[in-house]
């Protein structure tokens, strides 16, 4: 063979054409192959390496596509690239193991997962399969505003379950709250570039506002909700009326009326993120704020904890003033949520399965919250303050510890424990520990492991 460095190892586990591609690429980078050099023909190289012609042809085609080689008709393949500073490690292999796989997650206290035993996944798969068996439905783009079947189902569902006043023409579907916020902010012409929201409540939403060059006015909160008066000059208010980081209680009716009066005085728009509002389990869910003032409230709802976190379907109910603006622009927007999943969700709601799942989950999370609270009380020091944050499906613990948040996060990662939201205020450290993704019978063991391997200070013997 003319070029001895063009070799492959058939037992390496790496595809042969990828090996050959990398050998030629690196030879050019090192100057072993120079611009204008001719490479062996496909037939000759396949014979020399005892590989198929398809293997050589695939490697050559990729190198030509990237500009390393050129295929000159009736003449062969020639080096086209100059000598380059190319990394010596193969491009398709990571230089070191991904951090993602270094430590297996044993217990997930974040809000990013749910208990797989309660996802109703078999019924959901059946609905998805039914949709895919209708080619005339899935071989076309979806409606920019969302599928009419789903918007109609959501209109009835949100009215019955959350007290939301809407019609299908004012509902917009999207792949998650962030995607919908990106559309909404574009509609807020004339409302200025400032948004007020509870401090630290929804960093993902806050980031969207900042991406649009909005100033954020952080609001404090007491046990009744956000503290709002005429000193707040923003004309966009982001609020969760069902609960927040302050605690589990929803905003009471008097405070809701105060928020609406403030919005009228400021000619402001209220964005109501009803995250898990229907999942309240210690009492009947409190109706959404939107039902009290549909002309000024944009309602946001989602299904990540009712179905699967991977089903990224959320919806937005616009007030009449903004729905008119949206109607003028909607043809220029692309739908971000899967059309097939939208149609499956429409069926899931219409056949009553979502109501059944909701009743099932309320019972489950009621039981889990009790187990989680008791486990924290048993394992953590007696002075630890523990609160159940109902709609967030978590408990909040307040600890007086000198260990930094970074150190505690590092201990958790090394122990295969995924922590939820953490923050520090007035000398106390706050940890929000979700019970949604941990099985009920594993919660005591998970909490014990959490305290023992993350929060318990190691014993250090002192010598005098």
Give a quick summary of the entry.
Helices cover 37% and strands 15% of the residues.
| CATH level-3 fold name of the largest domain | Aspartate Aminotransferase, domain 2
In CATH, the homologous superfamily of the largest domain goes by the name Type I PLP-dependent aspartate aminotransferase-like (Major domain)
Poorly predicted spans: 92-103, 459-464
**What does the overall shape look like?**
globular
The biggest sheet, with number of strands, parallel, antiparallel or mixed sense and barrel status, is:
7 strands, mixed
CATH architecture annotation name of the largest domain: 3-Layer(aba) Sandwich
* CATH top level assignment of the largest domain: Alpha Beta
Chain-averaged pLDDT:
87
Query: How many DSSP-defined strands?
Result: 17
End-to-end separation = 75 Å
Structural write-up:
By secondary structure, the chain is an alpha/beta fold. The chain has 14 helices and 17 strands. Strands 4-12-11-10-9-5-6 form a seven-stranded mixed beta sheet, sandwiched between helices. It has a four-stranded antiparallel beta sheet with strand order 13-14-17-16, with helices on one face. The longest helix is centred in the last third of the chain and has 27 residues, at 353-379. Residues 92-103 and 459-464 have low confidence and may be disordered.
Task: List strands and helices in order, with pairings.
Elements: H1 16-30, H2 42-49, H3 53-65, E1 69-72, E2 76-79, E3 107-108, H4 121-132, H5 135-138, H6 148-162, E4 171-174, H7 177-187, E5 194-198, H8 203-211, E6 215-219, E7 221-222, E8 225-226, E9 236-239, H9 253-266, E10 269-273, E11 297-302, E12 314-317, H10 320-329, H11 339-350, H12 353-379, E13 385-389, E14 394-399, H13 405-414, E15 417-418, E16 422-425, E17 428-434, H14 443-455
Parallel strand pairs: 3-15, 5-6, 5-9, 9-10, 10-11
Antiparallel strand pairs: 1-2, 4-12, 7-8, 11-12, 13-14, 14-17, 16-17
Helix pairs in contact: 1-3, 2-3, 4-11, 6-11, 7-8, 12-14, 13-14
């Amino acid at each position: 063979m003319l070029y001895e460095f063009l070799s492959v190892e058939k037992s390496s586990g790496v595809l042969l054409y990828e090996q050959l591609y990398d050998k030629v690429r690196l030879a050019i980078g090192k100057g072993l192959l120079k611009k204008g050099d001719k490479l062996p023909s496909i037939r000759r190289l396949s014979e020399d390496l005892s590989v198929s012609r398809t293997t050589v042809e695939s490697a050559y085609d990729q190198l030509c596509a990237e500009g390393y080689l050129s295929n000159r008709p009736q003449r062969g393949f020639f080096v086209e690239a100059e000598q380059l500073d190319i990394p010596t490690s193969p491009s398709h292999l990571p230089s070191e193991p991904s951090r993602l796989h270094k430590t297996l997650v044993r217990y997930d206290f974040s809000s990013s997962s749910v208990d797989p035993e309660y996802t109703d996944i078999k019924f959901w798969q059946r609905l998805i399969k039914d949709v895919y068996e209708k080619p005339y439905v899935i071989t076309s783009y979806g409606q920019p505003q969302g599928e009419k079947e789903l918007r109609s189902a959501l209109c009835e569902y949100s009215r019955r379950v959350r007290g939301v006043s809407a019609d299908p023409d004012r509902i917009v579907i999207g792949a998650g709250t962030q995607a919908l916020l990106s559309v909404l902010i574009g509609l807020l012409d004339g409302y200025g570039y400032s948004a007020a929201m509870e401090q630290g409540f929804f960093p993902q939403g806050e980031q969207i506002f900042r991406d649009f060059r909005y100033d954020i006015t952080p609001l404090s909160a007491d046990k009744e909700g956000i503290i709002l008066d005429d000193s707040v000059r923003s004309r966009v208010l982001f609020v969760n009326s069902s609960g927040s980081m302050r605690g589990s209680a929803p905003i009471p009716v008097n405070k809701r009326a105060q928020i609406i009066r403030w919005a009228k005085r400021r000619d402001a728009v209220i964005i109501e993120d009803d995250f898990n509002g229907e999942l309240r389990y210690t009492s009947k869910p409190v109706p959404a704020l939107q039902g009290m003032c549909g002309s000024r409230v944009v309602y946001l709802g989602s299904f990540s904890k009712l179905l699967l976190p991977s089903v990224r379907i959320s919806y937005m109910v616009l007030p009449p003033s903004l729905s008119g603006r949206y109607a003028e622009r909607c043809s220029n927007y692309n739908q971000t949520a899967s059309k097939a999943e939208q149609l499956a969700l429409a069926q899931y709601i219409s056949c009553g399965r979502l109501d059944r799942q909701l009743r099932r989950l309320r019972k489950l999370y009621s039981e889990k919250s009790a187990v989680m609270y008791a486990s924290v009380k048993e394992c953590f020091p007696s002075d630890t303050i523990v609160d159940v944050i109902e709609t967030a499906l978590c408990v909040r613990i307040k600890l007086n510890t000198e260990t930094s948040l970074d150190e505690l996060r590092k201990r958790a990662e090394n122990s295969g424990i995924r922590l939820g939201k953490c923050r520090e205020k007035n000398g106390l450290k706050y940890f929000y520990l979700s019970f949604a993704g941990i099985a009920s019978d594993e919660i005591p063991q998970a909490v014990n492991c959490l305290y023992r391997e993350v929060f318990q200070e190691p014993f250090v013997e002192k010598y005098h």
